[in-house]
Amino acid sequence: MKLNIEGLLVYFPYDYIYPEQYSYMLELKRTLDAKGHGVLEMPSGTGKTISLLSLIIAYQRAFPLEVTKLIYCSRTVPEIEKVIEELRKLMEFYSKETGESNNFLALALSSRKNLCIHPEILHANIVVYSYHYLLDPKIADLVSKELAKKSVVVFDEAHNIDNVCIDSMSVNITRRTLDRCQNNVDTLQNTIHKIKETDAAKLREEYRRLVEGLKEANVARETDIYLANPVLPDEILQEAVPGTIRTAEHFVGFLRRFLEYLKSRLRVQHVVQESAPQFLKDIFDKVCIDRKPLRFCAERLQSLLRTLEIADIADFSAVTLISNFATLVSTYSQGFTIIIEPFEDRTPTIANPVLHFSCMDPSIAIKPVFQRFQSVIITSGTLSPLDIYPRILDFRPVTMASFTMTLARTCLCPLIVGRGNDQVALSSKFETREDFAVIRNYGNLLLEMSAIVPDGIVAFFTSYVYMENIVASWYEQGILENIQRNKLIFIETQDAAETSMALEKYQEACENGRGAILLSVARGKVSEGIDFVHHFGRAVIMFGVPYVYTQSRILKARLEYLRDQFQIRENDFLTFDAMRHAAQCVGRAIRGKTDYGLMIFADKRYARADKRGKLPRWIQEHINDGSLNLTVDEAVQLAKHFLRQMAQPFRQEDQLGLSLLTLEQLQSEEMLQKITQIAHQT
Amino acid sequence: MASLSEEVLLVVKKVRQRKQDGTLYLMAERIAWGPEGKDRFTVSHLYADIRCQKISPDGKAKVQLQLVLHTGESTTFHFANESSALKDREAAKELLQQLLPKFKKKANKELEEKNRMLQEDPVLFQLYKDLVVSQVISAEEFWANRLGGVNNTDPTLFNNKQEVGISGAFLADIRPQTDGCNGLRYNLTADIIESIFRTYPAVKQKYSENVPHNLTEKEFWTRFFQSHYFHRDRINTGTQDIFSECAKQDEKGLKSLVVQGVKNPLVDLLSLEDKTLDEGYGVSTTQPSTSNANRTVKESSNYAIIKRFNHHSAMVLAAGSRKGETPADQASETSSTDGNSRDSDFFQPPVKKVKLQEAIEYEDLQRENRPKTVALNLKKSDRYAHGPVPLQSQQYTTSQDIINSVNYIRHEMANYKPNLTQVVSSTAASSAIVALSPGGVLMQAGAQQAINQMVPSEVQGELKHLYVAAGELLRHFWSCFPVNTPFLEEKVINITFIGVNDYCHLC
């Protein structure tokens, strides 16, 4: 159908539309009009992707000078492929409706083996790729540097974007890294010797260039041609490479000194935590390395590798890592922490020293993106609470909206099970984690559900260790055997190949009517990347609140940083983080309005307002007072009732006019009134 | 009748049948009885014809043995030798017990099946009488396409039973019980053994290798339950048991499955992420890592349990679908060799394409497109609604005719002027009234009598039989095409001949 979104003609490749899709496009258009950034939360299964594509492409066609490019970033390969598929559908619709073959060029970059830095990326109207191509400075420099300023950037499935940012800026150094680095440096030295004998002019030419400094990059940045690299600080662009590392031999000598210093740091006997300035002071005191040459390290190494015409850069990954670390540690006095651990906590007898250089501020990596591109859209099915993202990513959005899912029938049923039938409080909190009564009641919940829920049930635990312990305990108590009478059991392991197979078998068992249970882990790969549509997931059970492992020193440092810099209380952040993962887990089962499923939160803490309030609105609004603190038996009764209702035939006519609209229905005054209420502004 | 070449297995004298003394003979293929003093058998049954034997209870005065035939008839023999009646009967019974099953297995299954079908389906029985008994077509032809299942390898058709899968919890059903003196008792049933064999073919192989040559059945299962293989959660103690090989085999099978990878790209966790960070970058796992190297004993045991459950479920699932699996596997193999090589970047594997399409489809956003149906086009819908009505000799009046005549009569009546000088006689008037009353001569067309009320039920039944028989014949007729053997050609000619002669008056 052809839609009129505040005067913009939008081709939408379906005969019907969900009201929230219309509302979503409306907000999106306002964001583009304002040339600002937006945060939009809309449940999965309501056609978010196609709404995004339809509107932005229509906008691009209508205002080719205002928006020149759409950069669509998603997280997983299947997600990227789905976007491409939807795009194809939209393009087919365009050429069918307009009669002209489309002259739109869309480009998908996925998986490194097809990494294509072809200039076509500059001409494409649409680029679809993974987050890393934009957020990881190492790749962004290669792929995305020259993308036009007038681009719209979309981060889909963006609920974990802060972690991606942090990952892309963090470095870990082990003994192995240093050994490999040592080899790299030796190789470099040999190559320099050889070149000196054969082609000394080349090195002289490099020297000359370095005296000139990084002027080129500076000009580019000032004239706004390039996406800035967060690793490369502004100041150094104006300066020449310091004399101490200007010649190739001096630089290699410098690297050696730095390496020896790092080796000495890894010889610690106890845990050390320090800030970047402390580290710089120490390195100056011990080996007289100044801050300035360190800052040029990454750039200087790149130059050297280019000059030496080294083909396989991958062989030099260790020395690249070290020089990136050198530049980062000397550039950012804030937002990073250095932790040196001589051994793993669990195995204090085995020496395995690691230097963690951890980024604690996600805004560092994403800052150039917000600064460069005129509109950046952060969107996902679960982004609650919305206001936390602008805070931790440090940007000011023009739109923030959460959309509900309009439903002709309530196809999701969130239940909070807080007690066992014996009134024992259910919780995964640390004090009762080993409690037999809790484990038994959790088992009982799964057993009861396995008897009444058709086809597939997915259960999530808070961590692998927790799951392994519970499974072992259920096994000893014979609970698993009883569950096996109802359904087959498959369990996620830390081996991805093994889990993939278990997943496929799980789906097979759901498909052939036998029914199965998948035991899985929040924050695991399954919880983040696999959908359980229709009968593949009629119920999701979330055992416990999936808090992150809080004993980690890196996490503690990050929490401290959040408190000091962003005034976010530790508990607030931890709860937010736990709830976004819980929402991700339970949201796996509802993938559309024709789908249905139970969402069972098995922990009494979910009933508390501070937890519940952090769930996405589209889940929250279906939790009523009657489903707050249920026993297992009560939950079973409610579930039975729900499943029986849902099993009735559900036809298109049932939805029409309520949660599904024709063009005429959409245009009615009354409906437009209603639609304005769907978007919940914050 | 008694041919000398027959091998006589048992002779029992002094056996009475219908109050006559005689001798009972059990031969290789039949049982026979001849009255005393005569050298011919008055009773003779092929073993294949016997459904079962019955014996009188031990306490009874008369020692009898009854044979029940498939036809339902029965023959009773009375063992009359006072001293050894019981012994004689036991001897005959034992021998029959051995002999009957052999024959039963062969022929009777089919026969029984035919019998059952005829009994259960009166229409089929009638058809059988019409076509086979009256020798229109031969019995073999009649059964040929009805009983396809019997000789077929696929037992599902003729059993009408579904293949039964395996309960996921069958191992749970063998809950051990302590026997009170430091031992465990496992209760095994044939079903459970069957389940174990189907789920773990490796165990079955071990069984056939070792039982009964090396081990008794009991020993075999005892070892099975004692083995590490059964108690997978126990860490291997390194004992040499016959099942360690099974475990290895399973491991291998599991590995090969894992290596093979998954067909559905949407569940492939290995290719989920576009780019894993380079080594050395990223926040190292916030969870305590559990690499294999430094697991505690408890953790390894937990891991073993998890692995075991995954394996068990996969095996149970595979056992349930093992039958249908082979063709699918072949199909997938051929499809992967037809040039669509997997690592080709230009081809998306078809499975992937389909799965992606499915994933992005919003069925409710699209206009429903139901399969197009063809509307039934009836020329005379009243005939469809009412069934056949007897054909009247008079002209068929259309509704337009009737309307016209009603109008005409109304018009006539409007202008009616009684002509009292020319009234009809009273007899003529009353006969006219009779003729116009319901049931009268002129009113017959009005009362629509359904043909099923007019034709006697015998005739109707006959007609039905003829119709069904003709239909069956036609079915045979059409199934002969394309005529590519002399046998079929002959059959076509035969049927055509029969059809023209016997059934043409139907047309």
From TrEMBL, chain A:
<dbReference type="Pfam" id="PF06777">
    <property type="entry name" value="HBB"/>
</dbReference>
<keyword id="KW-0004">4Fe-4S</keyword>
<dbReference type="GO" id="GO:0005524">
    <property type="term" value="F:ATP binding"/>
</dbReference>
<dbReference type="InterPro" id="IPR010614">
    <property type="entry name" value="RAD3-like_helicase_DEAD"/>
</dbReference>
<keyword id="KW-0547">Nucleotide-binding</keyword>
<keyword id="KW-0411">Iron-sulfur</keyword>
<dbReference type="InterPro" id="IPR006555">
    <property type="entry name" value="ATP-dep_Helicase_C"/>
</dbReference>
<keyword id="KW-0234">DNA repair</keyword>
<feature type="coiled-coil region">
    <location>
        <begin position="171"/>
        <end position="220"/>
    </location>
</feature>
<dbReference type="GO" id="GO:0043139">
    <property type="term" value="F:5'-3' DNA helicase activity"/>
</dbReference>
<comment type="similarity">
    <text>Belongs to the helicase family. RAD3/XPD subfamily.</text>
</comment>
<feature type="domain" description="Helicase ATP-binding">
    <location>
        <begin position="7"/>
        <end position="207"/>
    </location>
</feature>
<dbReference type="InterPro" id="IPR010643">
    <property type="entry name" value="HBB"/>
</dbReference>
<keyword id="KW-0408">Iron</keyword>
<dbReference type="GO" id="GO:0035315">
    <property type="term" value="P:hair cell differentiation"/>
</dbReference>
<keyword id="KW-0539">Nucleus</keyword>
<keyword id="KW-0238">DNA-binding</keyword>
<dbReference type="InterPro" id="IPR027417">
    <property type="entry name" value="P-loop_NTPase"/>
</dbReference>
<keyword id="KW-0479">Metal-binding</keyword>
<dbReference type="GO" id="GO:0006281">
    <property type="term" value="P:DNA repair"/>
</dbReference>
<dbReference type="InterPro" id="IPR006554">
    <property type="entry name" value="Helicase-like_DEXD_c2"/>
</dbReference>
<dbReference type="InterPro" id="IPR013020">
    <property type="entry name" value="Rad3/Chl1-like"/>
</dbReference>
From TrEMBL, chain B:
<keyword id="KW-0677">Repeat</keyword>
<keyword id="KW-0805">Transcription regulation</keyword>
<keyword id="KW-0539">Nucleus</keyword>
<protein>
    <recommendedName>
        <fullName>General transcription factor IIH subunit 1</fullName>
    </recommendedName>
</protein>
<comment type="function">
    <text>Component of the general transcription and DNA repair factor IIH (TFIIH) core complex, which is involved in general and transcription-coupled nucleotide excision repair (NER) of damaged DNA and, when complexed to CAK, in RNA transcription by RNA polymerase II. In NER, TFIIH acts by opening DNA around the lesion to allow the excision of the damaged oligonucleotide and its replacement by a new DNA fragment. In transcription, TFIIH has an essential role in transcription initiation.</text>
</comment>
<dbReference type="GO" id="GO:0006351">
    <property type="term" value="P:DNA-templated transcription"/>
</dbReference>
<feature type="domain" description="BSD">
    <location>
        <begin position="180"/>
        <end position="232"/>
    </location>
</feature>
<keyword id="KW-0227">DNA damage</keyword>
<dbReference type="Pfam" id="PF08567">
    <property type="entry name" value="PH_TFIIH"/>
</dbReference>
<feature type="region of interest" description="Disordered">
    <location>
        <begin position="319"/>
        <end position="350"/>
    </location>
</feature>
<comment type="subunit">
    <text>Component of the 7-subunit TFIIH core complex composed of XPB/ERCC3, XPD/ERCC2, GTF2H1, GTF2H2, GTF2H3, GTF2H4 and GTF2H5, which is active in NER. The core complex associates with the 3-subunit CDK-activating kinase (CAK) module composed of CCNH/cyclin H, CDK7 and MNAT1 to form the 10-subunit holoenzyme (holo-TFIIH) active in transcription. Interacts with PUF60.</text>
</comment>
<feature type="compositionally biased region" description="Polar residues">
    <location>
        <begin position="329"/>
        <end position="339"/>
    </location>
</feature>
<keyword id="KW-0804">Transcription</keyword>
<dbReference type="InterPro" id="IPR013876">
    <property type="entry name" value="TFIIH_BTF_p62_N"/>
</dbReference>
<keyword id="KW-0234">DNA repair</keyword>
<dbReference type="InterPro" id="IPR027079">
    <property type="entry name" value="Tfb1/GTF2H1"/>
</dbReference>
<dbReference type="GO" id="GO:0006289">
    <property type="term" value="P:nucleotide-excision repair"/>
</dbReference>
<comment type="similarity">
    <text>Belongs to the TFB1 family.</text>
</comment>
<dbReference type="InterPro" id="IPR005607">
    <property type="entry name" value="BSD_dom"/>
</dbReference>
<dbReference type="GO" id="GO:0000439">
    <property type="term" value="C:transcription factor TFIIH core complex"/>
</dbReference>
<dbReference type="Pfam" id="PF03909">
    <property type="entry name" value="BSD"/>
</dbReference>
<dbReference type="InterPro" id="IPR011993">
    <property type="entry name" value="PH-like_dom_sf"/>
</dbReference>
